[in-house]
Amino acid sequence: MKLLFVVNPISGGVDKEPFLKKAKTLCKKYGIDHHIFKTTGKDDQIELKKVVQTFKPDRVVSVGGDGTTLFTSISLLDFCIPMGIIPLGSANGMATELSVNPEPMKALKDVILSNVIGSLDMLLVNDAHYCIHIGDIGINAQIVDSYEKDKNRGMATYAKYFLQELKNLTPFGVTLNINGKEIREKALMVGICNSRKYGTGVPLNVTGNPMDGIFEIVIVNKIDANSLIKAGLSKFDESFHDSQNGKVLNGDSASILFEEPRLLQLDGEVIGHFKEIKVKILKGAVKLITHNENTYVNS
């Protein structure tokens, strides 16, 4: 077996070296040929594709958070090579959704041992950008934008900007076309979901499945003290999820039109301002190394 590790050294402010040291020892013990590719922020996708072509791995291991998972998935679109996830970012929302073991070395052993290869969907946005977890427009996109510009990381920093944005909530007009229907709403946030939960564990919807060939659009109309309390509780018990504060629609393609350009974030990365957003599903785009305790595999 040949393993290619794709590592984002700075994701989540988490030191990856202790894991990599243990991973190298494990590979050496069992005679597993391996190569480590570390992102630098410069031509990473081009360089990674070169490594894939020359090293020819049997499996690729994404080491980092949701952003690293997305980067690795995009890089493998032209290759039929299965990918596994090691959750070592500040937010590991997608890994949690996919029942990846939270202990990195146990997650690595799953990647090496499992013969369960699932088909994970990806979203294509405006024919140029990809999303594998959750994107949105509105309050959370503004929070992510402020968070990215702050030198500090972690939930405390996120909470600081969350409280700031709550004071500036202003509904905006949105026209959604999905499944042949046109819907007009005033929203505080529009979620684009290949999955259900944010990295915080709070569900934006409770029906999503990242392996079913469709995605969810969530229109949030109301955010108040009661809905925030329920959102916090829904992290621990999904029965608290408040479906009365918005609409959830699903399909395999959609267009979202705003009265003026709005800020879009995808998987924790701010993409830019758009007046129109087009979304379509790339069904089974990622060959995911998983296991049968992942509830989405056989659903």
UniProtKB/TrEMBL annotation:
Lineage, top-rank taxon, reads Bacteria
Q: Which SUPFAM superfamilies match?
A: NAD kinase/diacylglycerol kinase-like
Kindly give the InterPro entries that the UniProt entry links to this protein.
Answer: ATP-NAD_kinase_N, Diacylglycerol_kinase_cat_dom, Lipid_Phosphate_FormReg, NAD/diacylglycerol_kinase_sf, YegS/DAGK_C
| UniProt keyword list | ATP-binding, Kinase, Nucleotide-binding, Transferase
GO terms for MF: kinase activity
An example Pfam family from this entry, by short name, is DAGK_cat
Protein name (database record): Diacylglycerol kinase family protein
Q: Does the keyword Kinase apply?
A: yes
Q: Which residues form the DAGKc domain?
A: 1-129
Species per Swiss-Prot/TrEMBL record: Flagellimonas okinawensis
Q: Does the keyword Hydrolase apply?
A: no
